[in-house]
Amino acid sequence: MRLAERSPASIADDGAMSSGKGKQGPRADRPRRRTFTPEYKQAILAEYDALTEPGARGALLRREGLYSSHLVEWRRAAEAGALDGLAKGGKRSGKSGEQAELERLRRKVEALEAELARKDAALDLVGKAHALLETLSESAASKPRSNRR
Predict the structure, then answer these.
(1) 8 and 61 within one domain
(2) What is the three-state SS of 27-45?
(3) What is the DSSP letter of 144?
(4) In this structure, are 135 and 63 located in the same domain?
């Protein structure tokens, strides 16, 4: 079956065009975001690049219900070699699980170091305030009291 013979609904039916059975909740009547398979994305990119006639590319986008921004995202993901990124709409970073965990832990360490620096500054301030109060207390105790009666 050629790409032109298929409708966008037959490529990735996510329930947006279905009768709505099985949906529940206050947003049950709202359409859901379409998803596209990596194969579909690659086929559309290849077909788009093959078109040379004036207006043919726009016709392809209208026929498939796509925007040029879809192709831009898909092309970037394909050039980056992120096939998983193509499956998710180009939003994945392509990092492995270990790399993602390492990045998460680095951010956590940075946040904890910043919190520690704030607490150290507060503790230093409290220590200086204590020393000042101690000095004032000693100077008040060492002054002779005058009898004002």
Answers:
(1) yes
(2) CCCCCCCCCCCHHHHHHHH
(3) P
(4) no
The answer to whether 81 and 72 have CB atoms below 8 angstroms apart is no
Question: Under a CB-based contact definition with an 8 Å cutoff, are residues 64 and 8 in contact?
Answer: yes
Confirm whether 147 is domain-assigned.
no
Q: What is the pTM of this model?
A: 0.40
Instruction: Please say whether the beta carbons of 20 and 28 come within 8 A.
Output: yes
Question: Could you give the C-alpha distances from 39 to 10, 70, 108, 136, in angstroms and in order?
Answer: 13, 14, 38, 78
Tell me the per-residue pLDDT of 82-126, one tens digit each, with 9 for 90 and over. 655 444 444 455 567 788 888 889 999 999 999 999 999 999 999
Which of 13-17, 76-80, 82-86 is the least confident region? 13-17
CA terminus-to-terminus distance, the chain? 112
Residue 28 near residue 16 (C-beta atoms within 8 A)? no
Which residue type occupies 107? Answer: R
- 87, 109, 124: which is the final residue of a domain? 87
Q: 74-90 in b/e burial notation, b at 16+ Cβ within 10 A?
A: bbebbeeebeebbbebb
